[in-house]
Amino acid sequence: MDMRQLRYFLAIAKERQITRAARSLNMEQPPLSRQLHIMEQDLGVKLFDRVGRHLTLTQAGYVLEQRARSLLHQLDETLIEIKEIDQGLRGVLAIGSAFSCISLLPPKISAFRAKYPQVKIQILEGDHFILDEYMKSNAIGLGITRLPFEADNGSEDYVILPLPPDPFVLVIPRRWDLGQIQRSIRIGDLADMPLLALKSDKTKRLHEKIVNECRRFLFEPNIVCECSSVAIIISLVVAGIGATILPKSVMSSFPIDEIDMLDISDTSFLSEVGVVWLRDRYLSQHARHFINILQTH
To answer: Could you tell me if residue 22 is left (phi over 0), alpha (psi between -120 and 50 degrees) or otherwise beta?
Structure first.
């Protein structure tokens, strides 16, 4: 017995007459009578008793009616859910983010949740190479990261959509008292300052961009420590070991009193941000909706 036959059966149970049931199903009476006969033969039971021109459910027919209604209701709900998932109205949105971009997500996720409250969100964090692995293994559909994107075999396999850039700032220990005197600094004043660099063995481009900007102003940065963790670098700044140059939005993740943040006044020093996804991979409607929010909010 298939779902089509269950719908035929429920129509007959509702109308209590083959002719009316056939009319409600937009079909002829003989084919519907044959389908009822096939169902009763397959099940080995009578589903209806005939009382005059009308049909009444047998005990077996009554049980089947209850189960059939439940089964078809579940099927209809499942089909609606599948369609909504394809439209991005339900399901799971799995995204990845570099740690330095995590602070960009809360307002975007809030806007997404307001429009698609039935979609569950999963967030995985990692550097470029980890995000590359996540996307290639289908753990996430897209990643939000600093540009250029440093995938293991290059970024040619990816669509890269730039988002509004983020200015760099100098983050210093409050104990230096420099932030109490001024709110900005010239890049040349960093020449003798001990600096902490965000860098790993694989992700070097952000570090290289900062070094190249210093060289453009004719000095070599005094880097006293390299580290792959933003959180560790901030803790070292708090300890007074040195200052660091980071994208401004990163600092919203560290609401602490022991640091100051200075604009760099004499350079349009920007960190580029982008959303990336695999070029040959299906991009879900959830992900497309989220990308629209990244661009418009």
So the answer is: alpha
Structure tokens at 105: 């997500």
* Dihedral sign (CA 137, 140, 142, 145): negative
Count CB neighbours of 49 within 10 A.
11
Superfamily of domain 167-270 in CATH is: Periplasmic binding protein-like II (3.40.190.10)
The reply to whether 167-270 shares the fold of 91-162+273-296 is yes
Contacts of residue 196, defined as CB under 8 A and 6 or more positions apart, other chains included, come to: 223, 224, 225, 226, 227, 233, 236, 237, 241, 242, 243, 244
User: Which tokens in the block code for residue 158?
Assistant: 């990816």
Q: Is the pLDDT of residue 128 over 80?
A: yes
User: What's the Cα-to-Cα distance from 117 to each of 36, 132, 235, rounded to whole Å?
Assistant: 44, 28, 36
Q: How sure is the predictor about 179, in pLDDT bands with cuts at 50, 70 and 90?
A: low
Over range 189-198, report the average pLDDT: 94
- Give 268's pLDDT tier (boundaries 50, 70, 90): confident
| Interval 205-224: pLDDT, tens | 888 999 999 999 999 999 99
Cα gap 146→125, rounded to integer Å: 13
Is the domain spanning 91-162+273-296 CATH 3.40.30.10? The answer is no
Q: What CATH number labels 3-86?
A: 1.10.10.10
**What mean pLDDT do residues 217-241 have?**
94
What rounded mean pLDDT belongs to the chain?
Answer: 90
